[in-house]
């Protein structure tokens, strides 16, 4: 077990190194730089721009800049944002809460709703409900998230006026009710795809279990159908879902990025997009490493939990 | 308008000049008139104590709070409220003393020896937000910090000429200029004075804690900032000037313009300055009974900027033909809903140096074709003209994600094809456009909104001087690579003169030459739409600053 | 963000009709029993045919600007069946021309990503060892990036044209395919027929392409179909992020991008291209689903 963990951790480190090298090169080689935004207005002269680029060390060779970044990173120094000079980790943590709030809420919605649809679909296979759920799931994953977000805003905020069009809360009103009100639309949009995915996986997992011998045995022993469903089928069907939850993380992060942009949600996704647009290299790299760690951790935890939950799986 | 970095961000800032203020009074915006003529009317009804808050929606996030460091317009909007310059330009470009007691001039003896010696008397009794007194040492420190090597000063334009700063007394300072440079007066009107007693102790002024908790002398003190969400300023009750009448001002970051407008309409924000309301929402917003909606002019111009390093575009006849075949009326009336006004000059119409007598562009495809015929451009394959083996084809780039600009491009494309010029659209995100693509003159032509002024001074040397071409080793912003000795000479003469009439004559002549040679093709001057809730008095747009929060200390809620 | 691939992995057919007549090919028979897949196939075929054949028959070209007729709502004018856009261009004509581009992007990006993914997966699965590990770790690393980062970063390098958009999408969507193929090959490699091929002295390339690949074709075909759906969706996201196909060439993605501003005053500008994307992508997902069933009998009924 511990050798397994060690090996996984070593692999993760190698992966992080690749991710950072690839990310750093792509980012720095891409046209435009952190000073682009100041060239637009026309007030800063080229002499000013060149001088500041020199001061920021942007004129040095790329490998040197990468080595420096890596060296600082190894010491736990994530660097400072080019925009507000704040430490990167501080900025990420400041934006993390909003993203977690959104992601957790939508994951909960997706799990609850998705599992329910999946279970019901599997129990009543080929029923009208099952068919509609299938079609609905297919459509849900087929429409662009940003388009769906716009339609939601147009319908619920602009036309009906039921929900706020964006933001995490009304300034000056910090009550949880107010926050909840703001959370509905974006979490709904973000949950759409996850719910669809979750319901399909759940349905398929349920069908797997239903056909297992031990369910048949249970049934033949005369255990009530309800009990079979909840004590045996659902419980076992949920097992593989642990992995799915872990692997869904990158998709969820990307989805959060789009959702946050549309709903002006002050989270990491929007920070990431802004930082890319401003070419705020330290922050982009920071977020990249942060999410990479999160993703790797997600899959590791999923594997470990799976091993714990299902004794048939041996981690070696 | 999408010029700054970010998909939906705009740098061109709305300001309102005197002319438009008058127009406003006469317009059907009766209720608005109340707020616009603020100074007079609102005086009577001002609260004795700061009260209430205003939530201002911004489409870009303010992140730079050291007012001397590279910043964008929303950052200036904050700096204008936390700090003070020595003097401030009002909407009519009159300089009003702030931290100085009077604005130095040749007449009052503040500027002498042919513009080389400057002497400034400072206001007494001003205190920093932390209670420390403001003195001449702070001004000296500020000017020196800007020129300190290693400090990322936004610009050293003008400042680099300052020599021999002397503190003559606690509230009097003088310095010498290496050469006479009249736009420096304007540049100082946007140079905010920073506290010596805090920043001189910082290890590295680039990353000092001060940069995220600024201490100024302005009408509002730093409150709190939640990155990515909003920042709050609170009233400085010890402010030396008028006001403030508001207890709090909240600047909220809403990156999407449609969302910004929606929030203004649903009342989640009280005002939007800067980017404001998209043109297509203007009509609807005007009908909203709770809103004052104003078009405010900006000193930004929408232009086609050709790269004169390209053989086809280096030909003046080509530029004139392209200009003649731009359907300005369709662009302005239809795509921009008649909000901005066409312009022929690169100088904003509200500036004193503006030359109103330039020939008016007329949309005439036949005339454009004739111009090209006469210049020897003959139609070749697929109707595209050619001369000496050079085909008349080029790309037009702009920042992507701007629906209106893309429409303009496609309209031009259709017209230009008819006169035998083949244009392709090549739009890219702002960070790419404004990188080397722009500053190293790698573009063919750009459709951009930018300005050709020096602060609130009409000087356009950094944009048109032949010594300002970065790709040829210059230090300015002459990215189209324009060279004209006569223009250089006129601009230099205007820079060293402190006589406004004389300068106006010189700049007028420059405008005539630029209108003829068209190093940029002017389309219109921006007139963004800003909205503010009725009930807030004191809002008064100012073309000379990048944010109309410049006078927020005089804003107040109607009782 | 572009989740098209995920659900499909678990999605299962549901709707089925009683077999009407017996088809020879069992796979084809299974596919035809899958009503949604048949619907998807019909929709895609019809859409493709319309996009190819119809535009020349329409009264307006997709790029003809008539600024006076801008914002004509659908049905608002007999000349413009689906109305006009912000420059007065015919929506129907633009939708169909955009379909050509979007479908072409979808298919081409799929082809390229399949080639990359299959090659990487084949090599990694067959050779394993250091080469296989390095390749698959690289795949893992690429999958660590949020797909939006890859799209944003890579697109900053290229001039936005149809072909570069295709490359861009292909370059960011081959990893899943590589994983699937690698898994398949790894399993097949130990099977008797591979060992037999080795025994008679077949070369590596021959074994890979003649023996292993044909046996792994079922999941590849399914992945390919889903990849088309993914690519069409990705194109719209790229437009949303500002790197899309340049005007005046229409694509469903860039039509949608330009329409955001007018969501309220002219909602058809957003609804029509959005619906086309949804229709096309859903259809491809249905087909992929049906194919999975048809090609893998063991999956039946799941």
Automatic annotation (TrEMBL), chain A:
Domain of life: Bacteria
Pfam families documented for this protein: BPD_transp_1 (PF00528), BPD_transp_1_N (PF19300)
ABC transmembrane type-1 domain mapped to chain residues: 96-306
Segments traversing the membrane: 12-30, 102-123, 135-163, 183-201, 237-263, 283-306
Subcellular location: Cell membrane
Membrane topology qualifier: Multi-pass membrane protein
InterPro entries documented for this protein: BPD_transp_1_N, MetI-like, MetI-like_sf
Keyword Transmembrane helix: yes
Key words, A-Z: Cell membrane, Membrane, Transmembrane, Transmembrane helix, Transport
Family named by the database record: Belongs to the binding-protein-dependent transport system permease family.
Official protein name in the record: ABC transporter permease
Automatic annotation (TrEMBL), chain B:
Main location (coarse class): periplasm
CDD domains in the cross-refs: PBP2_thermophilic_Hb8_like
SUPFAM superfamilies linked to this entry: Periplasmic binding protein-like II
Subcellular location: Periplasm
Family, similarity comment: Belongs to the bacterial solute-binding protein 5 family.
Domain Solute-binding protein family intervals: 97-467
Keywords: Signal
Protein's UniProt name: Peptide ABC transporter substrate-binding protein
InterPro entries: Peptide/Ni-bd, SBP_5, SBP_5_dom, TAT_signal
UniProt xrefs under Gene3D superfamilies: Dipeptide-binding Protein, Domain 1, Dipeptide-binding Protein, Domain 3, Periplasmic binding protein-like II
UniProtKB/TrEMBL annotation, chain C:
Chain ranges of the ABC transmembrane type-1 domain: 99-288
Membrane topology term: Multi-pass membrane protein
Chain ranges passing through the membrane: 36-58, 101-126, 138-158, 164-181, 216-245, 265-288
Entry keyword set: Cell membrane, Membrane, Peptide transport, Protein transport, Transmembrane, Transmembrane helix, Transport
Main location: membrane
PROSITE patterns cross-referenced by the UniProt entry: ABC_TM1
Subcellular location: Cell membrane
Matching Pfam families: BPD_transp_1, OppC_N
InterPro entries listed in its UniProt record: BP-dependent_transpt_permease, MetI-like, MetI-like_sf, OppC_N
Keyword Ribosomal protein listed: no
The keyword Chaperone is annotated on this UniProt entry: no
Family in the record: Belongs to the binding-protein-dependent transport system permease family.
Name this protein carries in UniProt: ABC transporter permease
Species: Teichococcus vastitatis
